[in-house]
Amino acid sequence: MPNPIAMFKTSLGEFSVELFADKSPDTVANFIEYAKAGFYDGTIFHRVIPGFVAQGGGMLPGMKEKETRKPIKNEADNGVSNARGTLAMARTSDPHSASSQFFINLSDNSRLDHRSKDAGGWGYCVFGAVKDGMDVVDAMARQPTGNRMPHQDVPVTDIVVGSVSLA
């Protein structure tokens, strides 16, 4: 069975992501559940650091955080690297704290990969990769950013997710 494809419609354009259900089944199931519920519709990419990541999936315009379901188990030990164009789960310092937020790697970020099953080595679970539209993702990195206390690297003009659908 082929991996599912997520279609992102944003204020900067569209891009598609192959979701690695074969490598990160629980993480992909979690993402699909949020997408099917329309959770991501109207959210923003709230943290964009050129040469590093574009993060979204949990904030509304005005930096209002959305309420999420319970965190999921970290599947970063799946052997998939945080390479340019991959989609990974965002989390706190707790390795098993990811819920709805994700980031797209804007460069190869192997330092975010799984190294060991302890707090410092868990890494960030890669669960997909941009198939088409990386130019749209790169355009995010060209947007001016600033601070919206207590948040840093916030795009000055909101990059809004209109919808995330499954193809």
Write up what this structure looks like:
With 167 residues, this protein is mainly beta. It has a single domain (5-166), classed as Cyclophilin (Beta Barrel). Helix content is 12%, strand content 35%. The protein has two helices and eleven strands. It has helices at 25-36, 134-141, and strands spanning 5-10, 13-19, 44-49, 53-60, 64-65, 86-89, 102-105, 126-132, 145-148, 151-155, 161-166. Strands 1, 2, 3, 4, 5, 6, 7, 8 and 11 form a nine-stranded antiparallel sheet that branches.
Order of helices and strands: EEHEEEEEEHEEE
CATH topology term:
Cyclophilin
Output the CATH class name: Mainly Beta
Query: Which percent bin holds the helix content?
Result: 10-25%
Q: In one word, what is the shape? A: globular
Percent of residues in beta strands: 35-45%
**How is the biggest beta sheet arranged?**
9 strands, antiparallel
State the low-pLDDT regions, or none.
Answer: none
Number of helices: 2
Structural class computed from helices and strand pairing = mainly beta
CATH architecture title: Beta Barrel
Outline:
The protein is mostly beta strands and 167 residues long.
Question: Tags for this entry?
Answer:
single chain; Cyclophilin; nine-stranded antiparallel beta sheet; 2 helices; 35% strand
How is the secondary structure organized here?
Layout: E1 5-10, E2 13-19, H1 25-36, E3 44-49, E4 53-60, E5 64-65, E6 86-89, E7 102-105, E8 126-132, H2 134-141, E9 145-148, E10 151-155, E11 161-166
